[in-house]
């Protein structure tokens, strides 16, 4: 079911004008494998941008200012993870406080530390239960990872 969901979301994005830079198709052979996919020219209100894909698909959006980037990132109902690549600590601090996501990864391409708390905000996830922080489930805990 999830494989079909990913295929459908990418196909609908392509039909709506998204440009595929790599991937955009199933991988031949046994199993349910989908090629890592990068899309541009996606509309902010499109399903591929607004919904959680849970597949190897990255819709890339352009922006003019950091404020625009924050607005685009926060303009959805979900809030599982966000990522930012910068060496500007002023922007890191703004991202830490203004991005509406349960996890924010800064200058990292791999996710969650094993001892870390894992939970989404808004319509993402079912709460958190990792480590001692699982007891704090009723708070809006935010994790920020910075690597430099």
UniProtKB/TrEMBL annotation:
Aldehyde dehydrogenase domain residues are: 1-144
- Highest taxon in the source lineage: Eukaryota
What Gene3D superfamilies is this protein classified in?
A: Aldehyde Dehydrogenase, Chain A, domain 1, Aldehyde Dehydrogenase, Chain A, domain 2
A GO molecular-function term, please? oxidoreductase activity, acting on the aldehyde or oxo group of donors, NAD or NADP as acceptor
Any Pfam family matching the protein: Aldedh
Q: Tell me which SUPFAM superfamilies the record gives.
A: ALDH-like
**Protein name, per record:** Aldehyde dehydrogenase domain-containing protein
């Amino acid at each position: 079911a999830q494989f079909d969901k990913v295929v459908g979301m990418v196909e609908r994005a392509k039909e709506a004008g998204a440009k595929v830079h790599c991937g955009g198709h199933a991988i031949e052979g046994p199993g349910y494998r989908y090629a890592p996919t990068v899309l541009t020219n996606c509309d902010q209100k499109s399903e591929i941008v607004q919904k959680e894909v849970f597949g190897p698909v990255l819709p890339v959006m352009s922006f003019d200012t950091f404020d625009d980037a924050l607005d685009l990132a926060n303009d959805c109902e979900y809030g599982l993870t966000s990522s930012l690549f910068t060496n500007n600590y002023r922007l890191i601090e703004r991202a830490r406080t203004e991005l509406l996501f349960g996890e924010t990864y800064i200058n990292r391409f791999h996710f969650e530390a094993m001892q870390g708390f894992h939970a989404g905000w808004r319509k993402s996830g079912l709460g958190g239960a990792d480590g001692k922080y699982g007891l704090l489930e009723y708070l809006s805990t935010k994790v920020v990872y910075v690597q430099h």
